[in-house]
Amino acid sequence: MTPIKTKIDFAVVFTVDKANPNGDPLNGNRPRQDYEGYGEVSDVAIKRKLRNRLQDEGEAILVQSDENRTDGYRSIADRVQGNEEIAPYFEKKNKEPNKEELVETLASKAWYDVRAFGQVFAFKGTDVSVGVRGPVSIHTATSVNPVDITSMQITKSVNSTTNEKDPSKKTSDTMGMKHRVDFGVYVFCGSINPQLAERTGFSEEDAEKLKQALITLFANDASSARPDGSMEVNKVYWWEHNSKLGQYSSAKVHRSVKVELKDNNKLPKSIEDYTITIDELEGLPVKEYDGL
């Protein structure tokens, strides 16, 4: 494995067409919006999709969702305790003075998402508390323009349980609401820090796998809220600096991506209604990839 020697920045442009990209459970599962009406997809939701894609490609993932488990464990603690190399360090009788450092090293080696995003290892009944700082940071995705949300009443054709008072009548759980973003173009950015990558062992090979996961972010991600084809990665931009610090700050690199409406008087319905330009940064070439 080849260690990362330089800083990396990236940006992703994607579209949402009649789908709910990230529902807010505290707001009736409506698509997330900020106070100005711009759509949002949390960094946590993006990392979940990345973990799923990497898991599809055979990578070992610690934070697996229940519906996407590839082993018999139902929690992070169980998965850690099931690792024969790491589990002994969580036993209270273990007096190894450097066990926190050993847990960090072994966990980063064992699971891709730990060496990429980091993880906190602090479980009830143990005396070990380890925080692993991952080199990959990802921002919340935000829509280029405010998004319109459509809500519709939906009904089920059959009761989930029989109505005890009158079996012939519908129960209250047959009624519900479904929400969607009519159309929106979203952008999110991220970075890979080489100093933290050295600590967790995140390699150039790992970075390449991350890039491919970004390009195919919505593969195998379909659901009733996000039908196949309703979410699409349009562009992935990838900058590799010439040093660990980088020639430019991540903020400046990320600001170089400009996504703008061609006609402000026209309601956008596709990515073709936008222009995407990249401000050239001297000495820092950008690699451009189409989404799959």
What does this structure look like?
This protein is an alpha+beta fold. Helix content is 22%, strand content 30%. The protein has one domain. The protein is built from seven helices and 14 strands. Strands 1, 4, 7, 8, 9, 10, 11 and 14 form an eight-stranded antiparallel beta sheet that branches. The chain has a two-stranded antiparallel ribbon with strand order 2-3. A hairpin with a 6-residue loop joins strand 5 and strand 6 (129-133). The protein is flat and about 65 Å long. The model has no long low-confidence stretch (mean pLDDT 93). It comes from Sporosarcina soli. This is Type I-C CRISPR-associated protein Cas7/Csd2.
Give the H and E element order. Answer: EEEEHHHHEEEEEEHHEHEEE
Radius of gyration, Cα only, in angstroms?
22 Å
Largest sheet: 8 strands, antiparallel
Overall geometry comes to: flat
Strand content: 25-35%
Mean pLDDT: 93
Low-confidence stretches: none
Taking the alpha carbons of the first and last residues, their distance comes to: 27 Å
- The helix fraction, in percent, is 10-25%
- Class by alpha and beta content: alpha+beta
Total helices: the number is 7
Q: How many extended strands?
A: 14
* Overall tally of structural domains: 1
